[in-house]
Amino acid sequence: MSTFGTLFRVTTFGESHCAGVGCIVDGVPPLMALTEADIQPQLSRRRPGQSALTTKRDEKDLVRIMSGTEHGVTLGTPIGLTVPNEDMRPGDYGSMSDIPRPSHADYTYQYKYGTKTSSGGGRASARETIGRVAAGAIAEKFLRLRYGVEIVAWVSSIGDIEMKEDVVDTITRERVDSHPTRCPDAAVADQMTALVQECRNAEDSVGGVVSCVIRNSPVGLGEPCFDKLQATLAHAMMSIPATKGFEIGSGFRGTTQRGSAHNDMFVRKGDRLGTVTNNSGGVQGGISNGEPIVLRVAFKPPATIGKEQATVTYDGTSAVLAAKGRHDPCVVPRAIPIVEAMAALALAE
Amino acid sequence: MSTFGTLFRVTTFGESHCAGVGCIVDGVPPLMALTEADIQPQLSRRRPGQSALTTKRDEKDLVRIMSGTEHGVTLGTPIGLTVPNEDMRPGDYGSMSDIPRPSHADYTYQYKYGTKTSSGGGRASARETIGRVAAGAIAEKFLRLRYGVEIVAWVSSIGDIEMKEDVVDTITRERVDSHPTRCPDAAVADQMTALVQECRNAEDSVGGVVSCVIRNSPVGLGEPCFDKLQATLAHAMMSIPATKGFEIGSGFRGTTQRGSAHNDMFVRKGDRLGTVTNNSGGVQGGISNGEPIVLRVAFKPPATIGKEQATVTYDGTSAVLAAKGRHDPCVVPRAIPIVEAMAALALAE
Amino acid sequence: MSTFGTLFRVTTFGESHCAGVGCIVDGVPPLMALTEADIQPQLSRRRPGQSALTTKRDEKDLVRIMSGTEHGVTLGTPIGLTVPNEDMRPGDYGSMSDIPRPSHADYTYQYKYGTKTSSGGGRASARETIGRVAAGAIAEKFLRLRYGVEIVAWVSSIGDIEMKEDVVDTITRERVDSHPTRCPDAAVADQMTALVQECRNAEDSVGGVVSCVIRNSPVGLGEPCFDKLQATLAHAMMSIPATKGFEIGSGFRGTTQRGSAHNDMFVRKGDRLGTVTNNSGGVQGGISNGEPIVLRVAFKPPATIGKEQATVTYDGTSAVLAAKGRHDPCVVPRAIPIVEAMAALALAE
Amino acid sequence: MSTFGTLFRVTTFGESHCAGVGCIVDGVPPLMALTEADIQPQLSRRRPGQSALTTKRDEKDLVRIMSGTEHGVTLGTPIGLTVPNEDMRPGDYGSMSDIPRPSHADYTYQYKYGTKTSSGGGRASARETIGRVAAGAIAEKFLRLRYGVEIVAWVSSIGDIEMKEDVVDTITRERVDSHPTRCPDAAVADQMTALVQECRNAEDSVGGVVSCVIRNSPVGLGEPCFDKLQATLAHAMMSIPATKGFEIGSGFRGTTQRGSAHNDMFVRKGDRLGTVTNNSGGVQGGISNGEPIVLRVAFKPPATIGKEQATVTYDGTSAVLAAKGRHDPCVVPRAIPIVEAMAALALAE
């Protein structure tokens, strides 16, 4: 279903070429200042057409609060949010109607539902993420006001170009946005730009990794059993289109370590115990321990490419697909606000 | 909460040193043959004391079906399962009552609940996983009878010793169990044994990676938005104690590829379309496509080690902890049936 | 929360004086014909200003499908629905800002949320029910197309004027709508009209009972334990504003009978067993048995009345309240499509 | 499914003739004193064989806490509870295997599941309620310790013999239990006893009404929309076997009143506003207002009777059923602890 969360809950609607997209956010506490200005910045960071690196689909993505506030303050009632679709060009996709795009949702949607939108992605379109980003902005404001939580995501690799610097304690959104790739290491970022441009020129695409830190998380979030905090975070992140992997703290690298090296020794930090190292990534026993929550999300290369692909039609006949239109050669820069939104929603739920 | 799943739902209870552990499995279809003999084998694969590689805690872990069947056939009603705890030795943990184990759940549990079992792990104990394995055995039988689903997990790395062979299409549980490490490559497995023994001798521990394949998955499982199949699988796997990472298909490695190389070209396979490669790991657009579902789960080194650790007490005083007792130097061999169980529960839900 | 249902699920938003109200309906099967014309009739039956009997607030309540359909056919994705608020007159309520209306939600909302809309009802407004009615129209269409289900509600009493005729097998919406009171017995309906007019003239209000029949329900709906069909129906109905009671089948009257008289004897009806009588109201053991599901819902007299009431302000000072504005002296005629909607949602969930 | 509640959640298992029945209670706060002695009294009030008025099935119904406590104090982890079945006599039901009992669950279960227990009721047996009563005792203790909540149910009518006295403010369980019928008016209770005996002698049965008051409810329980407190209470009560109706406050009687008479005028009561009358039954706008929550539940006459009934077999052949065995001529006395349990669970959820 299209619902995430139990006590702080978002339900989304909308596909690529309908009248609009949006969501209902339920469980927002009353008496919190909230206007469109709290939500729009993250939507604008997500929207297409921001730079030469992304798809040229042009959308303003202006959000409207339909309910749940009065005089700029929340009422404790569900917040309805809508964003109109503007740049709909179903015609762009006509040539793909007989050939399911390899590694895209076309085939599985057709199989499961017996139908799909005439216009390609439908619910699998990146536009589905608008509702998430809008809801996440509300969750994030709540977490920031109540606990001082800070959530910052950044691009840590594109293709095999990887950033090495540890920026967990210092990274800010301003620094992330200082480069179109949203990699905070300028030298590495320039290499990434070159790689993305190369892929665009080749009508190809490339994947990448988004890292994210959640600072000032309250201690005690998460449930001991099935709803461990890392499980909820993994669920949230792996629900973003095009994700293939998730790590928290030491992740896969941690499997190669000895316990004596991997264990995070305790030390007093103010009124709580903290840890000297943070291989746990802020979560121990499924429950947040107050250290920064650090996670990484793997995004595969976008499936829709202009380059020719030898595949088959829905009925199994050999065919060559070259998807014309406005494709994103790399999604990770625009994925930044989505990862931040899902982090906020996972914490708030 | 201690519940997983919507239509096929398990709720577990029990901690390390109470009267017993168990679960209720709701949503099992009626008229399926089911006795304890369907459940016990996976519990026995999970139980401690199986080999020199694991903890010496000795438990038979005999399961009893309390309800939901009659004459060996399911009724469609909830199935209550109980497993008594036998080898309870709270005394073993006495020395740790003042010092939270680094990277274990002691501190976060104490903070969140204001209490914890006198005996260490409590709900964070590996015994909590018994209910999952029992429920998973039922889910797996249902999936096998209804769809022919086969689920096999194996150890693909311990520490930095990694198995290279691709066994996705051929691996069986018999082959997995042919070596105590549950790594199906005998030469690599011997190296792993040596490494685990070395850690045990050093009163230290080491992590590893469990791989898992789900063959014959029906096409169409998973929901387009928040409950994509990879999200549900990630949630399931990251809820297993000691997990730090999750990958499906190409995982983090896939982020370095071009779309033209990563995309899985379609080809006719019987009455459905299949793919030539399987970088998608059996899931496209969040929905299973009929190819083998392939995933990997990272387990950190166990936190409880005999080796001395310089840490602090609950009140922040410097202390040295050397956890006496029966510790597992490496959990991945015993994690095999747990990963299989969570895979079955994620598919059945 | 503002969500109802598990597999067929509606989430609503909106209060009396925000930009609009609406809902998201998730779980609607794909390939079902659906346009605004399927939804608008029930909204129009619910809207204020239909007759001299109801509130004079004037709203067109025109619904727009935002997503989930293409070319008039469902996609299997969430259906977003919006209805703008037009006739907002916050000024009408100014005088009530210090005095909570007796038996209304003002006090409990203020206590629970620490705020309320400046305009009276807020989320407790009857406008909240628009989303339910819209979602219910979709659920009803699905049930009608799939199973031939017919749902008809009617007014069976207002005040102490009660209709006696048994219309369970024959009643139609056309007959219900043939009189403004929506009581299908014309003579009784005229008495009801007189009573409502008398209450309106006295600036007072009066309650009533809505009866509802669900014909052609499939056999087997409902769960044995906590989610018995009568429990889900009771939940659905008692969530409608102003409800005080629920009955299914023989209801409270059945408590006075002997088992030998109350039991519904079985008889063959086509390919299933049916019953001679229907004291069970179509549900046995919590599961539908194929007979008509018959239920009754009690609505109290509306709390907002123009007549003077001796009460106290929020801070406990004695005060006299005479609520000016456009009040409904009796809600049951307009409650008809709401009861029908909740019946459809309870069956579809 | 067999689960009730979100934050305080019970899942039950067990049918009439399996090894045992029980439940898992999740969400119980840590550090609450809890032993079997807190749970057993309500189970003993529910168990059969208490008096000449009830079924002669003889069960001790001794509960065991399997998990979730240590040294008599809760840990915050799920509490597993089991109660063995002892007096199983499948043979008693042999004669009914071909004939579904009129107005019982036999036919609908067989239709829905394609099977049923050989022993009649299965999951529809009254033994299913043991898990509810056990869980309710825990919920009730939590509510009493945290808020001083008092829950008392009593029999207010059997057949057409009705008790008139208003005991909402004063009733205690001791007074309720002072008579085997659990009607606190001794003279009326004696008439009830005579009626029940008369029904027993005639191998017939009779229904009744259980009233219940919840005193000292905190203000603010319940959600504005679908989960209004009266909706959750109705759901809880209508999930009890044999229920046909639910009322809160003025109930169906309130529909005949004018708003000016029905409205509950506010008055200052300590640090909150209270009401002079309580037609609302403690709930306004779906949210508790601090006044006593007063509700009534209708129970039909038990379906299983010894008297001959002219009905048909599963395949539609005419047959006469006379159910031999140990039947309850009237369930309302034993329903008292079940109603109390469901009230506690609905409040705690």
UniProtKB/TrEMBL annotation, chains A, B, C, D:
GO terms for biological process: amino acid biosynthetic process; aromatic amino acid family biosynthetic process; chorismate biosynthetic process. Its EC number is 4.2.3.5. Its cofactor is FMNH2. Pfam families: Chorismate_synt. The keyword Cytoplasm does not apply. It catalyses: 5-O-(1-carboxyvinyl)-3-phosphoshikimate = chorismate + phosphate. Reduced FMN (FMNH(2)). Keywords: Amino-acid biosynthesis, Aromatic amino acid biosynthesis, Lyase. PROSITE patterns: CHORISMATE_SYNTHASE_1 (PS00787), CHORISMATE_SYNTHASE_2 (PS00788), CHORISMATE_SYNTHASE_3 (PS00789). The keyword Phosphoprotein does not apply. Pathway: Metabolic intermediate biosynthesis; chorismate biosynthesis; chorismate from D-erythrose 4-phosphate and phosphoenolpyruvate: step 7/7. One of its GO terms (molecular function) is FMN binding. Gene3D superfamilies: Chorismate synthase AroC (3.60.150.10). GO terms for cellular component: cytosol. Belongs to the chorismate synthase family. PANTHER family: CHORISMATE SYNTHASE. Catalyzes the last common step of the biosynthesis of aromatic amino acids, produced via the shikimic acid pathway. This is Chorismate synthase.
